[in-house]
Amino acid sequence: MIDHAKHLMAAHRLIKNIYEHCESHRPMEAMEDCLMAITELKMAYTAINHYIQTNDPDQISGIWNHERL
Fold it and tell me: In tens digits, what is the pLDDT along the chain, a chain of 69 residues?
């Protein structure tokens, strides 16, 4: 089971908060939630990448190794 869903849901909630902070002219809170959202997205990415490496080690994973056609 990929443990990425909770991180994606947390990032989604934080992104909604960022919008509300900006609308309410609270830039410091928005910046803090931006950093937290980035962290949650990175943790989701890491969980998905770990799943790929564990279950399909021949698969090239990681955004830095993948070239788009």
Answer: 467 899 999 999 999 999 999 999 999 999 999 999 999 999 999 888 888 888 877 766 555 555 544
**Cα–Cα distance for residue pair 60/48, rounded to 1 Å:** 12
| Spatial distance between the Cα atoms of 57 and 4, rounded to a whole number of angstroms | 19
| 11 backbone dihedrals φ, ψ, rounded to 5° | -65, -40
pTM score of the predicted model:
0.75
Which structure tokens are listed for 60? 């090239």
Cα distance between residue 54 and residue 46, in whole Å:
12
Tokens of 32: 């803090």
Q: Which residue has the tokens 């960022």?
A: 18
